[in-house]
Amino acid sequence: MTCSYWIFLVLLGLTMALVSWCMDYASAKSLQVYKWMHGELQGNVLLQYLAWVTYPMVLIMFASLFCHLVAPQSIGSGIPELKTILRGVVLKEYLTLKAFVAKVIGLTAGLGSGMPVGKEGPFVHIASICAAVLSKIMSIFSGVYENSAHNQDLLVCACAVGVATCFAAPVGGVLFSIEVTSTYFAVRNYWRGYFAATFSAFIFRVLSVWNKDAVTITALFRTNFRMEFPFDLQELPAFAIIGISCGFLGAFFVFLNRQVVLVMRRQTALTRFLTKHRLIYPAVVTLVIATLTFPPGFGQFMAGELMPRECITSLFDNFTWTKIWGSPPPPGLGRSAVWLHPQVNVFIILLLFFVMKFWMSAVSTTMPIPSGAFMPVFILGAAFGRLVGEIMATLFPNGILFDGIVYRILPGGYAVIGAAAMTGAVTHTVSTAVICFELTGQISHILPMMVAVILANMVAQGLQPSLYDSIIQVKKLPYLPELGFGHFSKYNIFVEDIMVRKVKFLSSQSTYRELNNLLKSTSLKTIPLVDSKESMILLGSIERSELLAFCDWWLSAERRILSQRQGPASRESWESFAYVDEEGAEESEEKVCDALGNGIKAWEEAELDKQIDIDQIRIDPSPFQLVERTSLHKTHTLFSLLGLSHAYVTSIGKLVGVVALKEVRRAIPHVALLRPRSPCSAVPSHACAAVPRALCLSITLPLPSFLLRRSVLLHRC
């Protein structure tokens, strides 16, 4: 890497560490004020309730209003949009400075409200914005930062930095960013991502030590599980049950979240009212959640007074709550005492917490504020794992005997495994296990954790898309979905079946009038250039901006005046007139218009009928091309790997069609509708005799028009 790369990565890591620490500091102070208000009003339940409900409502409504006014693009997670941007699609205003400001302030207010919203997704978006802004600044000193492909590499590094500074987990951050955002990952970005993520995580923890939040650089949620014998092989079935259960629960979470969003997007009187009055929906959601978690009320049965980080710390502790319930709390129990209600069993408390927080998290992440789902789902998984761990501790009260020594069950270890499995199921990633290792500072449960995470992924991926892909589908973002492993028909659908055959093109014999009409009739960003209408040999492609500038110059006042002075035989490069002073030309044009009247129009008509001088235009001589028999599988791979928006289809050099991203996306959901059948079951006997090796495919209707063009019986000899 060059020196500028190092400087950029250092600046990115330093900036994001400072932003992350400042956000954590501000949100922590806000939560301290929240709890202080609740404590000071103890004795007056009505005032306590009003303070408990009003405080988060004010912060959430402020975050919603601020983001709506400053940058609506800052609402939500940001990872789905970033996946789309890394795919090569340009989403306007998503990587701007005002989106950065709105995201940071809105997310800080959301985290400071105590609502079940996460930091990880929005912070990945914040890091990407920071990388985009820094690249613009660095482009002043080095032109390489103006290259779009280079900026894509920087955004990949920014994703890793965003996750690393959230959890102080550089290794898990890099792996998670690769799994979530990249279909294909360029190995050259591996080292850059690790360097920036490690530097940012280091600075983030150093700032905590400097502020005396920690004695030294340690894990964010450090655990103290025994290392000599953390678990027994007899516990592996329980860990497997956690993984499988988290797979089903994670898929249901994604389903529930998507249904809430779809209901809110449905055109009804209620949704139109909520759209018009944007603050009502977040206010009502916050009111309901705050009411149910009110500690003197129903919240006492679900540890409602615990803030998100306190929940994680208590769920990961070393105590077995079922053993100490009903007895005086042991020293060092701390905030975990909230889970021990004098009249209600620990199992009921954990179950109520899980059920209530499950739908609260699914609903709260749909509010129009910057919010992520990673941390709420992480807490849900920890609660479920803790519940299973407490059940195991009850079933084996004396522990498990091994080699003459009895080892007690560690419910906290089950909580860590549940947290990794649940987040893995929702995000369809395995790197959550690595993030858990770095969060807790221990890898004692590495084997059961990997088993649980893999099982959770196997179940969840077979039931629902990941949460981020679900949001992409709901928002209809132009992202190319994955092809399923079991869809063998992806090898039997070809480019010729999905391509657009009526291609708008330009030939070397085209006139300026034809060029002008083409630009008015289409919005294509690039236009193919062929040798002639008869041969249709593809010569290259031309950018729309290039053609617009060329066409404008051809009919410009400057060129008309110059041609009248020098005669029609003169031939000047149109690029030399890009910075001509127009004031004199406009005055001359007015004089000519007054004097000649219809002469200008006649001149323009004559110029439009002239043949285009192709030598004056910059042409891309090697646009990406496919042949007609390229399979959908190969086409999908090329589009994903190279980030293509379109490709021309040629046959022996002749342009026969074009396939764009939308055609590939439209074909993928219908791949499963093509299924191979036995030749004799669908083909008449004479057809089998004529085509002995025919491959017959039955098509389940209805299908889109591009597949209906194929015959119901497809033959490949």
UniProtKB/TrEMBL annotation:
TM regions (residue ranges): 6-28, 49-71, 123-141, 153-178, 190-210, 236-258, 279-298, 339-360, 372-396
Organism for this UniProt entry: Scleropages formosus
Keyword Repeat: yes
Localisation per UniProt entry: Membrane
Keyword annotations of the record: CBS domain, Chloride, Chloride channel, Ion channel, Ion transport, Membrane, Repeat, Transmembrane, Transmembrane helix, Transport, Voltage-gated channel
Protein topology in the membrane: Multi-pass membrane protein
Cross-referenced InterPro entries: CBS_dom_sf (IPR046342), Cl-channel_core (IPR014743), Cl_channel_volt-gated (IPR050970), ClC (IPR001807)
Pfam families the UniProt entry points to: Voltage_CLC
PANTHER family given in the database record: CHLORIDE CHANNEL PROTEIN 1, CHLORIDE CHANNEL PROTEIN 2
Name recorded for this polypeptide: Chloride voltage-gated channel 1
SUPFAM superfamilies (alphabetical): CBS-domain pair, Clc chloride channel
CDD domains: CBS_pair_voltage-gated_CLC_euk_bac, ClC_1_like
GO cellular component: chloride channel complex; plasma membrane
